[in-house]
Task: structure prediction
Amino acid sequence: MTYMENISPLKAVMDIWKVKRGKPEDILSRQQSRLADLIIFARSNSQYYAQKYCQLPEQITSLQQIPPVTKSELMANFNDWVTDPEVTIESVKEFVSDMSLVGQLYLGRYMVSTTSGSTGVPGIFIQDKGSDTVMKTLMAIRGTTKLKWSDILKVAAKGGRNAAVCSTAGHFTAFSTAERLRLKHLNGKIRAFSIQSPLSTLVKELNEYQPPLIGGYATAMEILAEEQKAGRLNIQPVAILLGGEKLYPNVREKLGSVFQARVLDLYGGTEATAMTFECEEGQFHVNTDWIIFEPVDEYYQLVPPGKQSHSVLITNLANRIQPLIRYELTDRVIMSPEPCKCGRPFPVVQVEGRTDDILKFSASNGQIVHTLPLALKTIVEEIQGVRRFQLIQTAPDQLTVRLEVDEGPRDQVWENVREALLDYFATQGLTNLSIEKSDELPQRHPKSGKYQHVRIDYREQH
Result:
């Protein structure tokens, strides 16, 4: 049995707590030892890595000797990539196609989450027990660094309920995690609230639940803040936990002011949920004892601290079922050349996150309806044949769709997209919108290189 298979929650807590104020060289020693173990394990148990590394020396002395991998590459070689022969892409796809299984363990032992495919390729990611333990412990210990003991006591006094405001349209990480905890031992203490619900329904449900902890995307919480200011939402959270989108300073200030709550941010991903934690100084620190973080240029060469990267390569040292070694994330980051004022030994990173816009439409009764970008994205992403898309508000009552089709007749895929969007808008009280098809394909942002999926593009808004 390997170290990762044998790691218990108590062992993980002790390990993570021990390096809280440790020396950088001690953290590096832990990292390098875990990397060596991971490479040996991957070579021995993954056909994909065995073949990819066959020309490499037995003793790898530098991480830069190892070729990077991409999501599309790994997904194309899924059955050879995973280290458990019982895991197959066919059975995993069947599992995630069944929404009644959200939160259940695949094969009775693995957590499964899907990604939305923001770079054009959806992903299916699996965590074994050891990885799940480490990531949850990192989030529990370091991810709550900004909370004070008085905050924790307030949460307990208010019942300890946690609301996850997230997409419930697939086996996405936030939804799967909330459901897993609910099914396991926290029924009544954690609940997922769907961003696909009409806003009035979401507000009503949150008013009834009264969560002292609430988590979600920054855009969702910004809309809920407007509902709170208007008096329709009436909750008193102690803390707001954010992730998955860029949190702008003005939005952070707004959320803290409107809800009178502590605002915590997190940069992570489905591939490694606890890549960073936020300190009291408001800086993201990389969990380098469990995550190797390499900002690189377009040729996968390391960029120096202080310079923006083209992308970032991550190595998840905890996961054994799906080894991620020098895996490319398309985020652009800047590593700080200076240590943080908080005194923690973990490096500081600035991240350029998602920047989709909140769309505003007028309902037939004159009411302004705010539309969550993530809700729109998940609707389109679930339609078969869609490869890439962009939803652009080009007038107060018009949405233009740029569509790239992966398979099937383009006209039929377009009609399915249009009907799905019209159905969703109808649930939001928007029955007078025009949805138009563009002849243009989706376009990357000229600076970030990413696809901004949902945005506003008409003069009246500026």
